[in-house]
């Protein structure tokens, strides 16, 4: 989108919300918003519910989505480098998202917002609409998301929110450099056969790839401090977002069980089987 177009969009948003988009204009005042999703922990063996309506989440360890940890780490590094003044973590979902937000606060986020959307899963387009409404209130200069949530593997929310906001997007970022003076983000992304480098005018949306950084662990004192921090709670209705399911999950099934392996007694037997049974030689 051309710079003039974004300015017009910003002016429209300012007129609508009564807020000035300071984050988008001044590096030292810039706010970074990070979307963090609560998902089944990456180390848990996934079980499908008996009625095949989804994945079992009761009595299962839940954690912050690993790509969201990377997103938060990047935001913290940007603030620590003096390019941003504040990091705000946002999570959309049931009451337990507060735990994920406490982890974000313990890692170093300044503030946290829980959008209480109840127990039903919230699909990427709805999350994107909610994030758009929050962006209009909070006015960050940068919105960072994980490239995908490991529970639904959608890889959609970042692209959708960039489209809704008409902000430039740097997806699958493996390196991010911010120029505070020029208000530009340079994003490197790994593509087939090389590295693509993009230059994005701020405000912008960035989604994080695995190699962007190594997220920090929350220290015990910070975990204790995070327990007493206030987490702002809003509902989708308060943000004027109607949660409409735009797609239906018909069925979730486990992959077919693999057949047991065969132990061969010699290399010759292995080659014979690969040639005559598997037919891959
Ligand atoms: P997805 O498009 O579902 O694969 O998710 C991509 C990214 O969008 C995640 O890594 C999060 O940064 C963000 N996101 C998706 N769903 C939520 C949610 N319910 N709450 C907060 N962030 C979310």
> Roughly what percent helix?
25-40%
Structure ligands: adenosine monophosphate
Order of helices and strands: HHEEEHEHEHEHEEEEHEH
What is the general shape?
A: globular
Structure class:
alpha/beta
Task: Assign the CATH superfamily.
Answer: HUPs
In terms of quaternary structure, what is this? single chain
Question: Span between N and C termini?
Answer: 52 Å
Strand fraction equals: 15-25%
Q: What's the gist of this structure?
A:
The protein has eight helices and eleven strands.
Descriptive notes:
This protein is an alpha/beta fold and 281 residues long. It has a single domain (19-276), classed as HUPs (Rossmann fold, 3-Layer(aba) Sandwich). Helices cover 31% and strands 23% of the residues. It is built from eight helices and eleven strands. The protein has helices spanning 3-17, 22-25, 66-80, 97-107, 124-138, 157-165, 220-227, 267-276, and strands at residues 31-35, 38-40, 62-64, 86-93, 111-116, 142-146, 169-179, 184-191, 194-201, 204-208, 232-234. The radius of gyration is 22 Å and the shape is globular. 36% of the residues are buried. The structure holds adenosine monophosphate. Adenosine monophosphate binds at residues 35-37, 65, 67-68, 71, 90-93, 122, 124, 127, 145-146, 148-149, 152, 154-158.
């Amino acid at each position: 989108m051309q710079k003039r177009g974004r300015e017009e969009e910003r002016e429209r948003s300012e007129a609508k919300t009564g807020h000035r988009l300071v984050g988008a204009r001044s590096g030292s005042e810039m706010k970074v918003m990070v979307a963090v999703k609560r998902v089944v922990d990456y180390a848990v063996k996934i079980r499908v519910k008996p009625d095949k309506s989804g994945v079992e989440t009761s009595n299962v360890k839940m954690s912050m989505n690993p790509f969201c940890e990377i997103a938060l780490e990047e935001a913290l590094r940007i603030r620590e480098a003096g390019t941003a003044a504040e990091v705000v973590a946002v999570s959309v979902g049931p009451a337990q998202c507060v735990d994920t937000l406490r982890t974000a606060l313990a890692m170093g986020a300044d503030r946290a917002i829980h959008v209480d959307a109840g127990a039903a899963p919230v699909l990427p387009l709805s999350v994107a609409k909610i994030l758009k409404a929050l962006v209009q209130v909070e006015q960050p200069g940068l919105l960072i998301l994980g490239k995908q949530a490991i529970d639904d593997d959608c890889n959609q929310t970042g692209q959708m929110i960039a489209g809704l906001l008409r902000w430039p997007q740097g997806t699958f970022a493996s390196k991010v450099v911010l120029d505070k003076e020029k208000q530009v983000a340079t994003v490197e992304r790994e593509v087939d056969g090389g590295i693509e480098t993009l230059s994005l005018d701020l405000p912008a949306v960035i989604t994080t790839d695995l190699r962007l950084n190594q997220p920090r662990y929350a220290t015990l004192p910070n975990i204790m401090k995070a327990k007493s921090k206030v987490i702002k709670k809003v509902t989708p209705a308060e943000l004027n977002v109607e949660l409409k399911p735009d797609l239906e999950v018909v069925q979730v099934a486990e992959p077919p069980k693999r057949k047991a392996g065969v132990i061969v007694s010699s290399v010759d037997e292995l080659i014979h089987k690969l040639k005559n049974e598997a037919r891959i030689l």
